[in-house]
Amino acid sequence: MIPPPARARRYTTTALVLGLLAGLTSGAWAGDRRPAAPRRHTETTRVTGSPGSSTPLSGFAIRSTADVDDSPAAVSSPGYRAAGWYPAGPRSTVLAALLADGVYADPFHSTNQQKIPQADFRVPWWYRADFTVEDTGPRTALDFSGVVSAADVYVNGRQVAPAAQVTGAYTHHELDITALVRRGTNTVAFRVRPNDPNKDLTMGWLDWLQPPPDRNMGLVRDVLVRRGGPVALRDAHVVTKLAVPSLATAELTVEAQARNDTGEPVTAEVGGSAGGTRFSRTVSLAAHETKTVAFSPADVPGLRLTEPKVWWPAGMGGQPLYDLDLTATVAGTVSDTAHQTFGVRDVRAPLNSDGAREFRINGRKLLIKGGGWSPDEFLRWDRAYVEDRLKYALDLGLNTLRLEGHLEPDEFFDLADRHGVLTLPGWECCDKWEGEVNPSGSGEKWSDNDHAVARASMAAEAARLRGHPSVLSFLIGSDSAPDARIERGYLDALEAADWPVPVLPAASETSAPRLGASGMKMTGPYDWVPPGYWYAKREGGATGFNSETSAGPSIPTVDTLRRMMTPAELDTLWQDPDARQYHRSPSAVFGTLKIYDRALAGRYGTPTSLADYVRKAQLAQYENVRAEFEAYGRNATDADRPATGLIHWMFNSGWTSLHWQLTDRYLDQNGAYFGAKKANEPLHIQYSYDDRSVVVVNNRRAPARHLTARATLFNPDGTRMYDEAVPDVTVEGDGAHGTALTLPSSVSGLARTYLLRLVLTDPDGTELSRNVYWLSTRADTLDWSGTTWYYTPTTGYADLTGLGSMARVPVSATAATRASDGVSTTTVTLRHTGDGKTPALLTDAHLVDAAGKPVLPVRWSDNQVSLWPGESVTLTATYRTADLHGSAPGVRVSGWNTPQRTVPAA
Fold first, then answer.
1. Candidates 548, 597, 681, 780; catalytic one
2. Which residues have a Cβ under 8 Å from the Cβ of 30 and sit 6 or more positions away?
3. Beta pairing partners, 659
4. Residue of 436, 479, 487, 630 marked catalytic
5. How far apart are CA 720 and CA 711, in angstroms?
6. Tell me, what DSSP letter sits at residue 531?
């Protein structure tokens, strides 16, 4: 692990001027530049006196304690002159603020991040904000979580909580500051302590990426100023019980805590509505007493819903949400309010007969097809960017995103609810979170206080997440399950919060004392394996529920590579497999690309240039990711050891990466992306690497009948060597599959490298699914006995070098664009205009602007398609018109054996 950063340097005027001049004249990043002039002031937050209001502080001014000699009382008092402090957003790590303020160069480019001085973040940093109130009558509290790693809290010159109390990224705090608030300007200040994921129950990055120099120290969730009257409403939520399998009724139970914040007895009226039904009750509270107020169908019959609006994951149904609204009034005056959205759904996760975890949503079995989610490396929240990635997940046919730690803000789960993306949150592995139970991890052992922080963290996250129908489960362990004491603390907190969905002891194949076996496996792989690997029902193959699995590296497009690396680094990328790659991982295991590069050269031939390296990488990633999802899809309904779930490791990366991603930092799409998209088609024809069967998988609800499946084998020059069509294929729905035919074990005259084209048509001859494979008569050979925790060695490679002999063929393109309500759709028709027999393999269409730069994000109906002479295909690309930035769109067409050209698309 890289140690944390943090003390601001002091400069003489001469040194500062010289440094600034050097940066201005050379354009180079000055590694130790730190402006000393006063920065712009953070806006003061205006807080209303409305009962039940929660106003987030709009931002902070931050400064290293090494540069602040004033006392905490002075720093946290109104009128303090924060000269030279840096502005920070309402949720910001220290480094995120400094990056926004231009202190450092782009840390995602080259090795710029290494130049950020880590020592600057080994001391506490001040976070300071002003807010104004016009009325001191309402009660006032600070409400927050997301402190990384701990903080002393001050208000108007007085300490209101020590760091020993405010510790842990996920613990929730409500501090009563009523007695300190004054009319006019008030000040809140946090003295945030450095983070060490091996010592603190916070967040770390393991081997995902180069860890940020500040280790994410800061305030990464909103700090709210809450106002209210004598009675506060807290912990408001709805417990739902859906009738399964009929889905005909649902029972709602509304619960909340009514708390008397005064020293006198109070009588309050607590009432509201849920699911369209109104209710109320009078509650008597002694001084400082808290009571649970509950409304159930037993006393409010309207809370028993008939024909409830049921929430489904995308593709299985709609995503309706209900509202809960509560109000507490005292003597006819509103004292507090509470609001929450919730969904009605039922989640169960029994172990099947093979001991594998098998999820059921509203009574229907569901193969979990997911990816590992990464937030931005500096925990910067960007709602539009997050929503774009969620839409990409749906575009890929995924239904679940796993959050191993790094539990995102509320808005993330709101978006997941609305888009129908299931989420699988849990604690992270290997650092402090597993310090007590993971002997191979780096985390320290727990103290009694750590146990308290862990329980408080679980209670806070359970209360925050329980109402989101997108939340599928919670994993209280990752690589290791908790021991009895830790498990008890977690489960007690979850039970107290009315946690509504299954709790899993770990993401690995282990067990906990009360919960028993996890029903999961964490067998990898995490580095390159051949496509045929996925079909073996062992290790990471398609059986059971694999919580982390992929073939490791995912080389981005040339466009992205040129944005993230220098020319010299790009030369090393394709020429030196043994070179340490900064943009892969800090891990010694994953620091190079040698396993991947050896396979790329062994199967496709030694790369001859950066462009050749990248085009071979796209073929390799397409075939491998496609095989991974296809194998799990095919085996999902097997009678023997069925596949029940996979989490591709990972869906995205928090920075500019060379591995573990289906989409890159800039939302560009490579072979891995389109391989996953192809594999997860709703109705899909596919080839099985293990037994040569041609299978149709139907992920739609209704059966598919009277289909025709056709399989054709070609030599690389386009000579047809085998052709068979099977009519009247029928496949049941809900993930069922049927075998249409099995390819012969040998075909006379077939070249060592050959192509397989699969086409599925309906009774009218309309094409429903097309899938093209590049295969070899010489199979990849796996050394299963040499399997490690991260991969299985390959001792012999399939020979795909024959693809290099394919003639270059022309593909014409015409494109047109229409725009409406801020959304543009570009329609592209690709046609193979060659007069020979050679197909155009893996033809890619990229939407670009007038300067040739990719327009992103974009969602294609299909892409990286293969065309035979005379064939054509029409694709659509949908994107925000604003992302053209006033430019006319174009479409850049390229492919394995297709010359690159760009056509206008206006």
1. 548
2. 19, 20, 22, 23
3. 553
4. 479
5. 11
6. G
